[in-house]
Amino acid sequence: MGEKVYLRAVPDYDPSRIKKVIREGLEEFGLTGSQYSNITIKPNVVMVHHRIAPSAYTRSEFLDGLIQVLHEDRNPVPKITIAEKCGAGIPTSRMFRRAGYFSLKKKHNIKLRPIEEAKKKKILLQKGQIHSHITTSREIVDNDLLIYTPKLKSNSLTHGLTAAIKLNIGILCDRERMWNHNCHLDEKIVDLLEVGHPDFIATDAVEISIGGNQFTQHGYPLGLIVMATNPVAHDSVCARMFHLDPHKIPHLRLAHERGYGPLDLAEINIKGDISLQEIQDKTKDLKTGFIRVDEVDCGFKVLIGEPYCTGGCHGVFLDWLYMIKDRKPKLWNKLPAWTAVIGKYSGDISADRVLIIGTCSLVQGRLEAKKIRRINGCPPKHKDLVLWMFLKTGIINPMFRLDLIIDAYPYLFFCWMRRLFKGSFK
Ligand code: SF4
Fold it and tell me: From the centroid of its chain, how far is CA 70?
């Protein structure tokens, strides 16, 4: 009956326990055997930092268990590559290091491939609505087993959920990734399924993140591994774990409408040692944090206009607010009174301090303020918003830290030089 989703309870990040469970998952989906010699693993390493982003990424212990299974009883051992592009404007190699993936590389003799530094391949899309083509690393395209290992998290840029389908935004390098990262984000993500269609998904939901910014939200011990081969069925079940209706999550609905898989439980065969109901009982009091940015109750007054870009300025600014709420509660309680305008706002504004966010944003009415500041971008990257908010309003976001500044500027420059040297800019 239908596409299978396999749910397994796992109490902690013990790699040997994870190995056993994933082995049983691969058996369940008929993916064991020695025919795979060239395997690519795509994790979620969007942001890693021991203090302010400790729960946003696929843990190395999880990948350790997976790689042990893939190596088990194989002679010769398959070539395994971990390929990923982390959050925009930061070098993936730094996030790999922070996530402990260099130890994995040493332990298992695998390759780490920051996608921006890899040799690329351009692929023409047949069904793309936003992208007619995309460029990604060869490892995402040329493999005989593509395994996705998302982290189960809430995400206010994508209507509350990030799981297997949203993971695809990390197969793109920054310029292509940020292009149409606005009210078209959902169509964009679904376009990517044509290239990034996993053969197997093993989701790290041992500790999930829920309720704030995708980088900075706090972890919650759900104790679960979700396995599947169909990303739509997988994400549909994950949405229900967060008490979300998958039909109301546009990238899931669009993926279903384009024929990538089922949304309804009647067409999904859920198996395993823990039921969806048991998981929902555990998560019943958790909130995804997905609300409109003008509904946030804080010192900022947010005025919105069209277009409302959940995946663009509106969502990115909501993330910026949540970063403070998640990691700087004292500042959250005394945020200075600014009026933020996002989108084309119809009406008059009279305020002390006005901040206009987004290249297209403007006030269609009379604007009276002692101070008017503007931050451009469509949308501004999270990193740029953190910096410009500091420079223009003096507010120090928790992401504004010396070690992350070193990652995001001098180290990024060093990586650019390395790419130039290796000829991997294209
Ligand atoms: S600049 Fe305008 S269109 Fe672009 S993301 Fe921001 S609000 Fe949306």
Answer: 25
Domain positions in the chain are: 3-283, 293-395
Q: How many CA atoms lie within 13 A of 268 on its CB side?
A: 25
Q: Nearest 10 degrees: CA dihedral of 188, 150, 118, 418?
A: 110
Interval 181-232: pLDDT, tens: 999 999 999 999 999 999 999 999 999 999 999 999 999 999 999 999 999 9
CATH fold of 3-283: Rossmann fold (3.40.50)
* 359 CB near ligand 1 (under 6 Å): yes
CA of 358 to the centre of ligand 1 (A): 5
Q: How far, in Å, is the centroid of ligand 1 from the Cα of 262?
A: 31
pTM of the predicted model over 0.90 = yes
**Residue 296, ligand 1, Cβ within 6 A:** no
Angle at CA of residue 142, ends 408 and 259, nearest 5°: 95
Q: Is the CB of 179 under 6 A from ligand 1?
A: no
Q: Do residues 61 and 15 make contact, with C-beta atoms less than 8 angstroms apart? A: yes
Q: Each residue of 297-337: pLDDT tens digit?
A: 999 999 999 999 999 999 999 999 999 999 999 999 999 99
As a whole number of angstroms, the distance between CA 171 and CA 164 comes to 12
Give the separation between CA 21 and CA 25, rounded to whole angstroms: 6
- As a whole number of angstroms, the distance between CA 209 and CA 351 comes to 36
> Is 362 a pocket residue for ligand 1 (Cβ < 6 Å)?
no
